[in-house]
Design a protein that fits this description.
alpha/beta; D-Maltodextrin-Binding Protein, domain 2; six-stranded mixed sheet; four-stranded mixed sheet; 20 helices; 12 strands; 13% strand
Length: 498
């Protein structure tokens, strides 16, 4: 893995002298100039910080890396395990001015945290307006792909892929076999595509569990596989799926400042929805193999192999399935969320750093990230639809799975004003980002404790920064979590950018 590096001031001015075009306007020069590359250069460092740590995610990153001119650029990547680590690392890097050329963000709060309440020449990430206007990105990209990366008319990141989050995976042949077996016992299973609510899903899982089916290896069939090795998979199930399915605009109220100046009745309504969400999560968890911790990747693979019937995760799960089983796995919109598409744009931003004119970042964004062929290759590896709306039919056909093509068409339809489809940004794009609220940073742990009753492991590697004592029981964790979320709902993060 490469280390972040800083070019010396002398090197930066040499680049100015040899640049193929003038610097675009920052004085003294900074990466935000996003200047044209010099006509002749070689061995120029290009550093990229990402949180794509899974092997399939690294394969997708490689689709971008292999397009970089290796005769001109020496590429280094800093791959961290989670988005939280990248955000905290970048925060520290701004202090030391030891920054990557580009870093990965989820569209929304990850970018807006560096932009909100600041004039355009004082933001910590660079405005890409000149590139946007020169290359007509507003025409080429879906409006909903650029909107979460925009603030007060400026663009501060470029998306490379769009993920769909409110998704239920299931094994179709296994479901058919279980339905036949249930029918013989006088019980009818409902096709997953016809389930209308989260409560109907719980009832369906109960009927599956009562069949006491086993896998070919003789192990008990898992009705619902849940990735429990990390805490964030349960958070995705909780908010982008279960809470959304409960209705009453609870999702928007929570993450879009819906309790600002709200009545006590509205506050109580959201509190009740959060309590119900946790109850549903406990029910769902009861149909998982809680005795064995599995990663979210293995939860998807269990569905593919027939060890589990269902799982709930973003559509990135398809990348975990081998070719011989991927045809057995289908997805439907999570029950109760039909007509809503929860999404997140995987994106790249450019940190402001003095003494450089930013041509490596410009090259990466213009030559690689915006390139349609690169986006299609990336999509096929990552199972993230391209964020551009100008794909020709043949380019849509180049997406290697029907699930990808169908998701692209649906997202395209949802971008239409009269589509009747609601687009909602994922929690990572709406909530306070890592490092801005120490107590909110404990949300995943509080949620897992409240649902499982098991306190989080104390690794001791990260000092606890929240001033409130951590709860000692699951019930106390639930109370703290709801109190925390209600306070978040009283304001909207980066409201001046939304």
């Amino acid at each position: 893995m490469g280390r972040f590096r800083v070019l010396s001031a002398g090197a930066a001015f040499w680049l100015l002298a040899c640049s193929g075009d003038r610097v675009l306007g920052d004085y003294p020069p900074s990466t935000c100039d996003l200047a044209d590359p010099p006509v002749e250069f070689s061995n120029e460092p290009l550093s990229i910080a990402t949180f794509w740590a899974d092997s399939h995610e690294q394969d997708a990153l490689e689709q971008l890396r292999r397009r970089i001119d290796s005769r001109r650029y020496l590429v280094s990547t800093e791959q961290m395990r989670t988005r939280v680590e990248v955000q905290r690392h970048i925060n520290d890097a701004f202090e030391s001015q030891q920054l990557p050329d580009v870093f990965q963000v989820n569209g929304g709060s990850d970018v807006l945290r560096w932009v909100q309440s600041r004039p355009v020449d004082a933001t910590d990430v660079c405005a890409l307006d000149r590139l946007r206007d020169t290359y007509d990105w507003e025409t080429a990209y879906f409006p909903a792909a650029l909107a979460p990366l925009s603030c007060r008319g400026g663009l501060y990141g470029l998306p490379v892929g769009i993920h769909h989050l409110n998704v239920l995976f299931f094994n179709r042949p296994l479901f058919a076999a279980l339905a036949t077996r249930a029918h013989a016992d006088g019980v009818e299973l409902t096709d997953p595509s016809e389930l209308k609510t989260a409560h109907e899903l719980v009832s369906e899982l109960a009927r599956v569990a009562e069949l006491q089916a086993t896998t070919p290896s003789g192990k008990p069939l898992v009705p619902l596989a849940i990735g429990s090795e990390s805490e964030w998979p349960l958070t995705v199930i909780a908010f982008e799926n279960v809470l959304l399915s409960l209705g009453h605009d609870a999702y928007e109220s929570l993450w879009m400042g819906g309790l600002a100046d709200a009545s006590a009745e509205r506050r109580a309504e959201l509190s009740d929805a959060l309590t119900e969400m946790l109850a549903v999560l406990r029910d769902l968890r009861s149909f998982s193999d809680v005795a064995t911790e599995v990663s979210w990747q293995d939860a998807v693979r269990q569905v593919g192999s027939g060890e589990a019937l269902m799982t709930i995760t973003g559509d990135w799960g398809f990348a975990q399935l081998d070719a011989d089983v991927v045809g057995d796995v289908e997805t439907v919109t999570f029950p109760g969320t039909s007509g809503t598409f929860v999404y997140t744009p995987d994106s790249f931003a450019v940190p402001r750093e003095l003494g450089k004119n930013g041509f490596p970042a410009r090259s990466f964004l213009h030559d690689i990230v915006q390139d349609k062929a690169a986006l299609i290759d990336f999509a096929n590896a990552k199972h993230a639809i391209p964020p551009r709306r100008d794909l020709m039919p043949s380019e849509v056909d180049a997406l290697n799975r029907e699930s990808l093509r169908a998701t692209y068409r649906r997202f395209s339809d949802c971008n239409g004003s009269d589509s009747g489809c609601k687009l909602l940004l994922a929690v990572s794009g709406l909530a306070p980002p890592p490092g801005t609220d120490a107590c909110f940073d404990e949300m995943d742990s509080l949620l897992t404790f409240a649902v499982s009753g098991n306190p989080p492991a104390d690794t001791g590697s990260t000092p606890r920064l929240c001033s409130q004592p951590f709860p000692t029981t699951g019930a106390a964790a639930e109370a703290r979590l709801i109190q925390l979320l209600l306070s978040v709902a009283e304001r909207r993060f980066a409201a001046d950018c939304r």
